[in-house]
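Hi all, posting the design record for the shared folder.

TITLE: backbone redesign
STEP: 1 of 1
STRUCTURE INPUT:
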């Protein structure tokens, strides 16, 4: 054994190695004392091996001093474990190493959180000691899986003829999207770079430059609040752009990449083979969200006609007074009990709603049960039952008002019903494309038309639509890809014509001067021959989160920030020194406490 630390890794040894000498180095995972015989599990990146020391071993005295997470070198002889003591859950579980020499390479202080097992610990402790947290099996495996997923994404992109480029990190600030992270310039006092929220303009410029198929595992930076599925500060995306393509071409390029990765790393779960296309307006109407979880089979329906002029005066009066009012039904298969309906009504009230109307159908009862059924009568109740495809033992809930004001609550109620009735399919990844997003939306606060999604998208109908249609009726070639209720990506066919771009921005209140100031590089490039192009950027962190079956994105990121955008391990953000501030020509104007 000539190597200073190991002849084998801790996951290598098997029965065929019995009788040979070995040298292992790693962390002491745990120590067990069985009647004076010490059993030590030693761990490295590759696995675990059981090391044994008894009083006859020359290494026994040192073995008695060892503690969890000490880093130790073991020399010894490989031997087959006694019958009945094998551990079939470990690749090395048929052998053990009888220790003949032990060298302590470093000691560990008392641990602030355990490494053995998967005990839940407060997040601030886990993040402050992330290097210990990463030693735990589950988190370590997540990070390794993340690396393998990224390798697979990259390989699949290259196999489809895409080429990887790197775009700048120090860029210009953009007025659209989230808040920028700004970087002060020392050599240009008073001016700032921005960390890119995405390589959006650069990847479009790559298409302007005559390259055809670009991708990048791109770091992106946004100064926004944390959520379970979004890191504060930074994240990675599989950034893609293609020239001379339609929307369908983008779909055909992206689907096999995502489908293949989810089949490769999804632990055998079913994966959608052909991703369905759902128009934005239909997604809102059917699911109450533009990020539908299709594992939930419930699809909401408009049942306004059954309440118009009915004896249920609350809904009938709303319908009569405002033509915009609609009544939506949320079917509840197997939810046909008063107890469940009352629970849903109480939940709605806990969400700040006045309640949640319901009808349920039970054996031996004509029409339906519940206050609404009594008010609208058997004929209308039966018509609702038939429209929703329900039967005895089922129920339905109702939300009324102007859909733009209640659809989010209706979607939450759909999710609640599906979850509580255990209707949501398990062990599958259900994908879909959300398409036909509105190009514009009404900004109530500023009383003006705004871009609703991506200002660089091509409007459906082109310049003719911009000139002749109500802007709020124009759809764009914009699309999202959604999996199990998680938005993985937004994308679009780009607006590559300067005349169309100028008009599109004009409708949103931006003059050509603003275009030149904020997007001058790209706008000028469009004047010199721009190919039709489009792309998308699936979020790598969210892909990994789904494939690791984790509810929080911080479980699949090496060194995440907390929800306040603080790095507790490295103490960032930190204060700048007076010298640094002087060099950057910055004077602080801090808020008063």
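Okay, here is what came back for every position:
SEQUENCE:
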């Amino acid at each position: 054994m000539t190597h200073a630390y190991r002849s084998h890794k801790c996951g290598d040894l098997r029965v065929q190695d019995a009788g040979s000498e070995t040298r292992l180095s790693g962390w002491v995972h745990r120590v067990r004392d069985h009647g004076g015989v010490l059993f030590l599990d030693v761990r490295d990146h590759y696995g675990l091996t059981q090391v044994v020391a008894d009083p006859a071993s020359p290494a026994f005295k040192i073995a008695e001093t060892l503690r969890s997470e000490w880093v130790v070198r073991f020399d010894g002889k490989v031997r087959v474990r006694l019958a009945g003591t094998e551990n079939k859950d470990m690749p090395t579980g048929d052998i053990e190493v009888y220790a003949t020499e032990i060298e302590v390479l470093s000691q560990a202080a008392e641990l602030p959180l355990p490494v053995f097992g998967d005990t839940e610990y407060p997040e601030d402790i886990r993040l402050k000691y992330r290097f210990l947290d990463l030693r735990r099996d589950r988190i370590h495996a997540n990070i390794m899986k993340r690396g393998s997923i990224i390798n697979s994404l990259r390989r699949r992109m290259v196999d489809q003829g895409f080429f990887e480029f790197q775009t700048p990190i120090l860029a210009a600030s953009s007025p659209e999207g989230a808040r920028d992270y700004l970087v002060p310039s020392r050599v240009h006092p008073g001016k700032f770079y921005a960390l890119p929220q995405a390589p959006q303009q650069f990847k479009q410029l790559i298409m302007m430059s005559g390259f055809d198929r670009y991708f990048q595992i791109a770091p992106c930076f946004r100064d926004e609040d944390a959520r379970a599925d979004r890191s504060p500060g930074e994240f990675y995306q599989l950034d893609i752009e293609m020239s001379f393509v339609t929307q369908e071409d983008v779909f055909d390029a992206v689907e096999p990449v995502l489908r293949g990765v989810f089949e490769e790393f999804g632990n055998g779960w079913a994966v959608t083979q052909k991703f369905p296309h759902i128009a934005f307006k239909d997604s809102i109407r059917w699911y109450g969200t533009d990020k539908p979880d299709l594992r939930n089979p419930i699809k909401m329906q408009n049942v306004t006609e059954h309440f118009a002029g009915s004896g249920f005066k609350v809904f009938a009066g709303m319908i009569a007074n405002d033509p915009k009012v609609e009544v939506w039904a949320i079917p509840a298969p197997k939810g046909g009990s008063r107890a469940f309906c009352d629970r849903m009504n109480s939940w709605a009230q806990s969400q700040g709603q006045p309640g949640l109307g319901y009808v349920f159908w039970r054996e031996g009862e004509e029409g339906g049960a519940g206050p609404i059924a009594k008010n609208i009568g058997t004929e209308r109740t039966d018509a609702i039952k038939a429209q929703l495809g329900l039967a005895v033992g089922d129920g339905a809930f109702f939300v009324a008002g102007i859909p733009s004001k209640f659809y989010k609550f209706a979607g939450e109620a759909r999710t609640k019903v599906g979850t509580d009735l255990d209707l949501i399919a398990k062990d599958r990844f259900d994908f879909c494309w959300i398409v036909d997003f509105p190009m514009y939306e009404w900004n109530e606060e500023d009383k003006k038309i705004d871009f609703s999604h991506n200002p660089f998208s091509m409007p459906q109908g082109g310049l003719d639509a911009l000139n002749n249609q109500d802007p709020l009726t124009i759809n764009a070639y914009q699309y999202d890809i959604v999996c199990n209720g998680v938005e993985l990506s937004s994308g679009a066919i780009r607006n590559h014509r300067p005349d169309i771009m100028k008009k599109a921005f004009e409708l949103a209140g931006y003059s050509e001067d603003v275009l030149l100031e904020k997007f001058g590089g790209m706008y000028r490039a469009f004047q010199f021959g721009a190919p039709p192009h489009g792309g998308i950027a699936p979020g790598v962190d969210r892909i990994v989160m789904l494939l690791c079956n984790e509810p929080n994105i911080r479980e699949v990121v090496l060194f995440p920030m907390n929800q306040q955008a603080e790095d507790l391990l490295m103490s960032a953000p930190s204060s700048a020194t007076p010298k640094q501030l002087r060099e950057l020509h910055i004077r602080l104007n801090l808020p008063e406490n």
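COMMENT: The CA atoms of residues 124 and 568 lie 7 Å apart.
Let me know if anyone wants the other runs.
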